[in-house]
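Section 5.1 Outputs to date
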Amino acid sequence: MGVGNRLLLALYALATMALTVALAGILVPILPEREWLNEVRYVTGRPEVLAGIVVYFLVGVHLFLCAFATKRTKKSAEVCLLTKASGRVHVSLVAIQSVVLRVARGVSGVCEVAAKISPLRQDAEETLRIGLKLTLRSGVSVRETADAVSELVRRELAHVLGMEGVQIEVEVAEISDERSPQRPRVS
């Protein structure tokens, strides 16, 4: 939901709360009947009140439809690895991301990893730009760990995908005192 719709929802909620309080004042005889009946007679014939009710209804319909609207997502992006006479080999960015995350999590001292992968076209060749956000364990060398993650990811992508010249940017988002979770041993 966008900012404009959130603002509409806030105003709609305030108007609904005000109407609810007024209705509660009428139903629980807080307001004298003579006064609220006089106000109802006054606003009944006013064209601006009718316009306000129509706008209130249309805003309600709009917000109702926004509640069920879904965002359209782009088709899953792919990278073309090979083009031969027999056909092309495409690999989805999601598959590449899973390889990158698996390799980066395996580096000693890395607690958490987030990866953003985008295709990049250099000359006539497709390559990747990979942005990694790391959470490192306290006490490890930031430079050595970042270099190790970068080198291992680059090597794994070269081995698995045959892709050279991958641009990798490593950002250390946090240094945590928590130990990385111990994996249960399988015997």
